[in-house]
């Protein structure tokens, strides 16, 4: 993979920086592993906008990705590395020895033709999935289950990984991408390695239209509105609104502590904000 800065033939191309990977699969995804998805554009079942700044976007199907990795003891071959419009990471198509095919999030360094496996008998190698109790301390992992058997939820985006810091009794300590250190049960599964497509953070969209392709509608600052439209609007010249940042309905949006009575507080060893 390489970052490419294109020729400035237009204002939209002048700032464009994209990732080019010649090894990506050029064909269509596996038909049995895709499903249609309805775009709500941030609206609920009544048609009311409940999530602002969403709309438009290119049509695409959802790729069914295996976040459980529960096919233990059966070897799989990486058939292709493919683009997924639903996430920043790439996905890898696995052909299992029993004939089944599945998509997984592609870790960094995984090559077409590689052999990977899940379960206690798997080696400590990139792409293999094991329980935390079988992973050595100091190993980088991704696609970590928050609770045993409930699909992976942690470190799934491009370039993300957690580091296994320690194991004590029935819990293991992982340092998350945010810097937080948290306890996970040793029966939680994790995949060895770091999520691929590390250059994603250096991508520059170049023009507003590419944001619209991704389904991101423009966002207007509250201080740029009139007082009738936003509590922070109005004033002569540029003003900060005269109050703490808030939503159009007056709800505080920065600095307000919203974490109360969380049962998982006891599992957090060190917070990301010290």
Give the SSE string. EHEEEEEEEEEEEEEEEHE
Major pleated sheet: 7 strands, antiparallel
How many strands?
17
Structural class category: mainly beta
Percent strand equals 15-25%
Low-confidence stretches: none
The percent range for helix content is under 10%
The span between the termini is 36 Å
Shape: globular
Please give the radius of gyration in angstroms: 22 Å
Number of helices: 2
The largest sheet has its strands arranged as 9-16-10-13-14-15-17
Explain briefly what this protein structure is.
By secondary structure, the protein is mostly beta strands. Helix content is 4%, strand content 24%.
Can you characterise this structure?
With 274 residues, the protein is mainly β. Helix content is 4%, strand content 24%. The chain is built from 2 helices and 17 strands. The chain has helices spanning 11-14, 208-213, and strands at residues 2-5, 17-20, 34-35, 62-63, 76-82, 91-96, 101-105, 115-116, 129-131, 140-142, 144-145, 152-154, 162-168, 171-175, 181-185, 189-192, 268-270. The longest helix has 6 residues, at 208-213.
Question: Any chance you could write out the topology, listing elements then pairs?
Answer:
Blueprint: E1 2-5, H1 11-14, E2 17-20, E3 34-35, E4 62-63, E5 76-82, E6 91-96, E7 101-105, E8 115-116, E9 129-131, E10 140-142, E11 144-145, E12 152-154, E13 162-168, E14 171-175, E15 181-185, E16 189-192, H2 208-213, E17 268-270
Antiparallel strand pairs: 1-2, 3-4, 5-6, 5-8, 6-7, 9-16, 10-13, 10-16, 11-12, 13-14, 14-15, 15-17
């Amino acid at each position: 993979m390489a970052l490419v800065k294109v020729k400035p033939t237009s204002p939209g191309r002048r700032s464009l920086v994209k990732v080019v990977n010649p090894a990506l699969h050029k064909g269509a995804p596996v038909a049995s592993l895709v499903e249609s998805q309805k775009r709500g554009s941030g609206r609920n079942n009544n048609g009311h906008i409940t999530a602002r700044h969403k709309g438009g976007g290119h049509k695409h199907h959802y790729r069914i990705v295996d976040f459980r990795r529960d096919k233990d003891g059966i070897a799989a071959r990486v058939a292709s590395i493919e683009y997924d419009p639903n996430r920043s990471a790439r996905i890898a198509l696995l052909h299992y020895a029993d004939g089944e095919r599945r998509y997984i999030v592609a870790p960094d360094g995984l090559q077409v033709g590689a052999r990977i496996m899940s379960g206690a008998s798997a080696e400590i190698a990139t792409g293999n999935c094991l329980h935390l109790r079988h992973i050595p301390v100091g190993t980088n992992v991704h696609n970590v289950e928050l609770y045993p058997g409930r699909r992976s939820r942690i470190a799934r985006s491009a370039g993300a990984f957690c580091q296994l810091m320690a194991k004590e009794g029935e819990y293991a300590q992982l340092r998350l991408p945010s810097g937080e250190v948290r306890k996970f049960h040793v029966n939680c599964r994790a995949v060895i390695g770091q999520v691929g497509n590390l250059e994603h953070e250096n991508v520059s969209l170049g023009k507003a239209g590419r944001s619209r392709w991704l389904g991101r509608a423009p966002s207007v600052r509250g201080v740029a509105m009139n007082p009738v439209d936003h509590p922070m609007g109005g004033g002569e010249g540029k003003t900060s609104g005269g109050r703490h940042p808030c939503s159009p309905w007056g709800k505080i949006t920065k600095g307000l502590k919203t974490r109360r009575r969380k049962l998982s507080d006891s599992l957090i060893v060190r917070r990301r904000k010290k």
